[in-house]
Amino acid sequence: MAIHPRIALNTMCLPGSALEQDVEFALASGYSRISIDPSKMEAIGWDRGTTVILDSGLEVATVVNSGWFTLDDRSTWAQTQEKQAITLERAAAIGAKTLYGITGPAGSLEWSEAARAFTEAIAPAAARAKELGIALAIEPTIPLRININMCLNLRDTVELAQLAGISVCNDLYGCMGEAHLKETIQSSVDSTALVQVCDYVYGSHHTPDRAVPGDGDLHLKQILSWMVEAGYQGAFDLELNGPRIAEEGYYEAALRGAHALSELLIDVGA
């Protein structure tokens, strides 16, 4: 079957390969969208990488943001702001729809204090993203990632995004067991710029340990139907990494995952 046109291949989940290989694979497999890991662009040079992406005809769903803030140490913010400013310009040059990432740790700050700090720290990037027409988004991560992110569920991510005047990347791996998920999805759909999809097998204690959609225990069809019913119109970024993906093979999992996700999206009317 054909890969659903709203599915993007995330090159971050294809370690060890060059950008040119990823683009060739995406085109040969029938992907129409791709998501960019900046390290792969840096490996061949951004000028060369930009040419590769633009010549491919693939739509760039998103670019991974460069760096995160140490929110309780203002002396470090300027360096991160500079990295983000450069990444935004480069994302615009390849036609990226979104730039997504994490906040960085709250450190010694209580959540509301960290939220104010993040809002201040991200303000320059938020303003520039609006000028460039790029949705700047933050995502939830599982609680074990508290060392790099203060948003550990979708509800908190939505709240912080609203405070900062930016968008939401709904990574389903980061909100898999969250209460009132349907209501949060419905109330935040207008600010949701990207949805990231994988599965999770109950009992795994590895992190990350994402699974191909359909291989695990998440209620993906139900969650995706909530997204579609709420009116979400953006890309579905296939993010697969961890030991079971490595064992199967990154390209093999990316192809099988795209077909499995395509079936789900067709079933829910996307």
What share of the residues does DSSP label as strand, in percent?
A: 5-15%
Low-confidence stretches at least 5 residues in length (pLDDT < 50)?
none
Element pattern in H and E: EHEHHEHEHEHEHEHEHH
Secondary structural class: alpha/beta
- How much helix is in the residues? 40-55%
Number of helices: 10
Shape: globular
How many β-strand stretches?
8
CA distance, first residue to last residue: 16 Å
The biggest sheet amounts to: 8 strands, parallel, barrel
Overall mean pLDDT: 97
Radius of gyration: 17 Å
Strand order of the largest sheet: 1-2-3-4-5-6-7-8
Description:
α1 packs parallel to α3, α4 packs parallel to α5 and α7 packs parallel to α8. The mean pLDDT is 97. The chain is an alpha/beta fold. The chain has ten helices and eight strands. An eight-stranded parallel beta barrel has the order 1-2-3-4-5-6-7-8, surrounded by five helices. It starts with 6 loop residues before the first strand and ends with a helix. The longest helix has 22 residues.
Short description:
This protein has 270 residues and is of the alpha/beta class.
Task: Using brief descriptors, characterize the structure shown.
10 helices, eight-stranded parallel barrel, 45% helix, globular, alpha/beta
